[in-house]
Amino acid sequence: MHSQELHHAKEEKDSGNYLILLVDDNISNLKVLSLMLANKGYQVKQVISGIEALDFIDKQSPDIILLDILMPDIDGYEICTILKENPLTHSIPVIFVSSLANPSEKVKAFESGGVDYICKPFYLTEVLARVETHLQLGLLQKKLQSKNEQLLLSASLLSQSLEQEQIISQTKSSFVSSALHEFCATLTTIQSAAELLGYYEWTKEEKVEQLQQIQTEVSKTTLLMEDVSFLSSINANRLEINSTEFDVLGFCCQLLCQIQIDLDKNYNHTLQTSFSVPSENISIHNPHQLSSLPSAIVRMAKKLFSLIVCNLIINASICSPKGSNIDCQFIIHDGHIDIVVSDRGSGIDKDDLKNLFSAFNSGKNTDMLSGNVLALSIVKNCVDLHKGEISVKNRLNVGTEFTVTLPTE
């Protein structure tokens, strides 16, 4: 150990902060050692037996122990062995102070866990020098252990960060691959329909049907591009979130009317909606079919709210058999709003639950190419941006219920 490191350690802890335990059945030795160490500013505790020493250590841990070997109840070797076998006391340095000068006794002392050995009669300056040295070595050892623990923690955090980066990289790669697959599938359908128009003689009705198919695929591709762009903006932190006050009931009615038109066109589903304000005893069923409605003013990110509602219903429509109903509830509370959307599908397979909100994830109960494969990923990202919560109630062979809770203040 470098002398400069010992000097720095000595400066960091004053001698008055050290507690030294003296264990010896010779009262004279105890008095001499205690007086010398106390004059140097150390706190000193004296005991005359091994049992007393162990009892004291159970209550208070000393910084160093000066231990005699030959004592009437428990000898120094056994005391040191007991201390070294205890995780709470194994790091306390023990210096043996004994009249036994035989080399085999010294070896036995070190084998039992001692850090040093001083023969009686001793020189006070030698005892003091060895005590100071081992106290400073102990302090440096504790600092080294602390630094090692910090390094291990840093290494663990770095490893976790690298693993997370690898997961993110794999996710991005999978995302790009899936997006390309979707684009290619749609473009193949468009190309096939266009080629058929050129190769065969079609009636007017058949041409219109082929053109409608092309328009449908173009719309799907446009929507997919918008969704991919949206998720990319979120991941790059480029999306601006602006909260505004608006009438959520009136806004929902307009939004649901448009969604119902799309459902009629693409899925043949019927929305069964309800709107309630429990604190005011307001409960309205199918509000988008009514001409006059009360107002319900909230402060939220309007765009995120719209995307959450639309994509929850889109997901429900993909999972539900054609012609079935989709339930959508809006419940306004003080400070938050609940959006509950239920489908009539077969539920979610347990193997799909862990990746439920991953982009391009397609469960076993849906056809990936039948709808928006980014719907739930968009919902989850929007809910997180709005500092809300989302939960899933899975009912196999009955359907799935998604509940989104968003703050409104």
From TrEMBL:
The modification 4-aspartylphosphate is found at D68. Gene3D superfamilies: 1.10.287.130, 3.40.50.2300, Histidine kinase-like ATPase, C-terminal domain. Residues 178-409 form the Histidine kinase domain. Keywords: Kinase, Phosphoprotein, Transferase, Two-component regulatory system. Its EC number is 2.7.13.3. One of its GO terms (molecular function) is phosphorelay sensor kinase activity. Pfam families: HATPase_c, Response_reg. Residues 19-135 form the Response regulatory domain. It catalyses: ATP + protein L-histidine = ADP + protein N-phospho-L-histidine. The keyword rRNA-binding does not apply. This is histidine kinase.
